Amino acid sequence: MKKQQPQLPAPRKKTPKDAARAVKRTGSLSLQEVTPNTLSELLGLPGMYVIRYAIEEENQERFPHVFCEHAQEVAVCPRCLTPTDNLHEVKERCVRHLDIWGMKTLVHFPQRRFGCSVCGRRFTEVLVWIDPKRRQTLAFELHIYEQVKGKTPRCQVALQEGLHEAVVAEIFKRQAPRALRATPWQTVRVLGVDEISLRKGHKQYALVLSDLERHRVIAVLPDRRKATFEAWLLQLSFEEQRAIKTVSMDMWEPYRQAVQRCLPQAEIVADRFYVMKQLNHKLDLLRRSLQRTAKRNGDDRLYQALKGNRWSCSRIGEISMQNKKPSCKRSWLLRMSCGRSICCAKSSARFVTISTSALAPRASWPPGPGRPWRRAAHTWSNLSARCVTGGKSSSTTSKQV
């Protein structure tokens, strides 16, 4: 059976980059005549029409004031869903709308209250283009939300739009859940599991679940307990659970147990950062142990080669001694081969080779030709936990996703 190729999105139609090129596209446009309702249609407020406007100038800035009226004389009661025209009260309101030609636009309209003739309830008319008790239209709030979501600082958005920073933060918090509900759910193939600290030093964590293929957060759990993580995995449908092929996490045992129970088909992948962190820690312990041994045995050359070279060992690179002793072409070389880690201190005079089986078993290194380090998926097969945790065995596989 042939593997189904992913469908690419349809190519977008090219848009003119400047006004001169737009002249050639006028033939494909659907031109409309200007009517009394043209300004109302361009304003984009359903159920409203413009009756007049004014432009206010203040501090060398212009503010268009657009005055609107309701197109319908009736409203629907939210309790009994009965249309009524029994007008009870009218109050003039002014709200902020999207800018017109770079000018901050204010919309004036009458806020109406009706009395239902069936259930006797008095209610405020619900408008589709603005939420109750809000000073900005939904279109303007969505514009603010898109700016903040696009990694523009809130203080900069507030300065550009003439709002307080607290108002910008409130708009973002109100629109974010609505945008999340409107986003269609897509099956996750590569699930990322990681925690963040809510309060430093208090051991309060939140568990962040993300889609590593689309680079977006899909859920934030209140804590990192195993039961909480399992409950989230079990609430997924059967198809969503089977779609997850890889789970990337750190080396915490409850995460691995939860995935093995709820997603038995998924491949567990240890984050390379945590693997290298633990491996570098064990290397540093080995270096210090060898340094103390060399000092007791009176091997001054080896002692000086190991002294102060912690980060050189972690980088697995070439360093040169700063003193007048012979150049140390390669202080440490970490190799994963034959089920053991070999650390070599190579000087111009001799090799000092130390072999140990307590670090890491065999691994596929280096990557193949044409595979950059950051893009390659280096698999460290069956990385035993006793080399990084000092005792327990584990079959966790590590790769870069």
Please explain how this structure is put together:
With 401 residues, the chain is of the alpha/beta class. The protein is built from eleven helices and 16 strands. It has helices spanning 19-22, 38-43, 138-149, 154-161, 165-182, 226-234, 238-243, 253-262, 272-297, 300-306, 310-315; strands at 48-58, 61-70, 75-76, 83-84, 87-100, 103-115, 122-124, 190-199, 204-211, 216-221, 246-249, 267-270, 334-337, 340-346, 351-356, 397-398. It has a six-stranded mixed β-sheet. Strands 1, 2, 5, 6 and 7 form a five-stranded mixed β-sheet that branches. It has a three-stranded antiparallel β-sheet with strand order 13-14-15, covered by helices on one side. The longest helix has 26 residues, at 272-297. The model is unreliable at 316-401 (pLDDT under 50).
Quick structural overview:
The protein is α/β, with parallel strands linked by helices and 401 residues long. The chain has 11 helices and 16 strands.
Task: Using brief descriptors, characterize the structure shown.
401 residues; disordered C terminus; alpha/beta
